[in-house]
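I hope you will forgive my troubling you with a question about protein structure. Could you please explain, in whatever detail you think fit, how the structure tokens follow from the sequence? Thank you for your consideration; the sequence and its tokens are set out here.
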Amino acid sequence: MILSLPDAEATRKLGVALGRSLPAGTVILLQGDLGAGKTTLVQGIAEGLEIQDSIESPTFTLINEYLAGRIPLYHLDLYRLEPEEVEALHLESYWDGLEMDLGIVAIEWGEKLPYKPDNYLQICLSYCDNGRQIELIGDCQLWD
């Protein structure tokens, strides 16, 4: 599915809708240039999950955990990492439900993940003449 969104507010509102509707265990792989709206989308997802905390990009912390919502939100940023560093983090603990409570996992620069987990939604954000274009590519299990 491809959507055209005129501004950051529309991007945030899409995030709110996703946060309200996606099930726990969903992994969102976010792709897009710097400033394309990845963090803005995650801020909306957090709002949809009823998380009151301020949502900041985890570019330097790598992972921000927000546990005080309807379900947890795990916000990851792989921008500064090399593929072997990503693999060494064993990020599957955030979506396999064995070590962490299942929640929504939003991964900025998700294309650096060496594999796609089950129940993923890939969101590609890009600039266009009238704002942003967002392409959603989902694993069919999300929609069952």
Remarks:
- The helical segments are 8-21, 38-48, 83-88.
- Strands lie at 2-5, 27-32, 63-66, 73-77, 104-108, 120-128, 131-138.
